[in-house]
Amino acid sequence: MKLKIALVQFARGENFKDNVERMRKILSSIKNVEIVCLPEAWVGKALILKPEDVNHILSSIGEIAKRNRFNIILGGFFTKRENRIISTCHLINSRGEVVGFTDKLFPSAAVGERRFASFGEKLEVFTVNNVKFGVVICVDIMYPEIVRKLALNDAKIIFNPANIPKNRIKLWEHIGITRASENTVYYVFVNNTKTTYPDGRKVMGESFIAAPNGEIVFKADESENVFHVKLDLSTIEKVRERWPYLSDIKNLKTLNNPSMKNIT
Fold first, then answer.
1. Diameter of the chain by CA atoms?
2. 16-28 vs 51-68: helix axis angle to the nearest 10?
3. What is the pLDDT of residue 109?
4. Whole-structure pTM value
5. Domain 2-252's class?
6. CA–CA separation, 56 and 51 (whole Å)
7. What is the pLDDT of residues 163-213, one digit of tens each?
8. Distance between CA atoms of 129 and 144, rounded to whole angstroms?
9. Which long-range contacts (CB under 8 A, 24 or more apart) does 48-53 make?
10. Spatial contact of 166 and 202, defined as CB atoms under 8 Å apart
């Protein structure tokens, strides 16, 4: 089975409303895919969106999803939930409905997100066309336990919408390859481009996809663009015949053995 996805590498500007309208135009041009993934924080730098702004994004982009018949991973932006600020990534289905969301569990300490944002609470496995996948927002990919939990709950693809500076792309490639191979899943990194990191470093795209065997099977350039990729999901089972890491972990009784408590 092959899954058709699109990665939107977005040249984020300074104005929130302009970013939303430009994103809507880009999404309107996308056809014949099943899942579209946006980068993290494409709406702007560390904006905390008002409820009416969130509703506008969800409804207006939902209309496009319904019209063009694809599912959209919205990438992640800061919203207020019960007097707490949390980075949240919504999933809109091909009927234009919001079917769920997942949180950034660990706000970035490096860029000061923890000064205003709370730790996330929700991690979800989504299903589109009988394919299960998870979304891990930006720096959460540094926590292997998060991806392992999703993979153990049958996620076959891990989408990682992010906003990563150019001098950290090689690090992200190493991490992405590791997460893909240790969990025998596809890893999909979607980045902004032609913008800046909170400390002024350049963010210049280079989104990529790592396959379950640890190979990078797609690498974007620095352009603002929509990249169409077909993921061959049969590769997952072929790799797992050789690398039974997940089934080994599921069957490993030693981790639950009381004697393991003495290990320091």
1. 59
2. 10
3. 94
4. 0.94
5. alpha beta
6. 9
7. 999 999 999 999 999 999 999 999 999 999 999 988 889 999 999 999 999
8. 27
9. 48/78, 48/79, 48/80, 48/85, 48/116, 49/77, 49/78, 49/79, 49/80, 51/79, 51/80, 53/16
10. yes
